[in-house]
Design a protein that fits this description.
Layout lengths: L4 H8 L4 H12 L2 H14 L3 H30 L9 H16 L2 H19 L10 H9 L3 H19 L6 H26 L5
């Protein structure tokens, strides 16, 4: 996933405008569900210490930086925020909504971890100088850097902590449930980038 050709093309600024427009139009469709999922994480987290990073990220990034970026980038590319939703976008959004509605903190953390870790994975492969076009450069910056790395490290740590706390007896079924959600999220991430590149799977 982190070396997907489309993701690597973002890091070099070589994605065609039409493809980048289609990708960002669809990615914008996640903003509401993703924001709601972060809110669910705040509510479902089992400790105050865990709630704080979710609340911080929700306030500082999901509702300000990313939303501002989307409007500027789509305006630059001639895109729209109300583009028709692609099937893979709808499927991933449904997964987010289902996990949110479950109020199951471990499943919420699993989906968030996949979404954010995958993006850090490809964005961290970008090398200087970054693309001159702000559409590519700022998208990389939003998913790289010390703060985003700390955020992903927190999510990974929560997944590890919660997983380690599962009971030995009866824990295998729960682990398989979480692993199934994790794998489904990875599958959808891959399919989403395939869609952006104009491929079908």
């Amino acid at each position: 996933m982190v070396t997907h050709p489309f993701a690597m093309a973002i890091t070099t600024g070589t994605v065609a405008d039409e493809d980048m427009r289609r990708y960002l139009e669809q990615d914008f469709q996640f903003v509401d569900s993703f924001t709601a999922l972060l809110g669910a994480a705040v509510a479902a987290a089992d400790t105050f210490e865990a709630r704080v990073p979710y609340g911080t990220f929700l306030g500082q990034v999901a509702t300000t930086e990313e939303k501002t970026y989307f409007h500027r980038a789509l305006d630059e590319l001639g895109g729209r925020t109300d583009a028709p939703t692609e099937p893979v976008t709808a499927a991933f959004r449904q997964l987010m909504d289902d996990v949110r509605a479950s109020q199951d903190y471990l499943l919420i953390a699993a989906v968030l971890c996949v979404a954010e870790w995958c993006y850090l994975g490809w964005a961290s492969r970008a090398t200087e100088p970054l693309p001159e076009n702000f559409v590519h450069r700022e998208w990389i910056d939003l998913h790289e850097g010390a703060e985003f790395r700390a955020w992903v490290a927190f999510l990974r740590g929560e997944l590890d902590r919660l997983g380690a706390a599962l009971p030995a007896e009866g824990g295998d079924e729960r682990r398989q449930q979480v692993l199934g959600v994790f794998r489904r999220a990875v599958e959808l991430e891959r399919a989403f980038f395939d869609m952006a590149a104009g491929q079908t799977r």
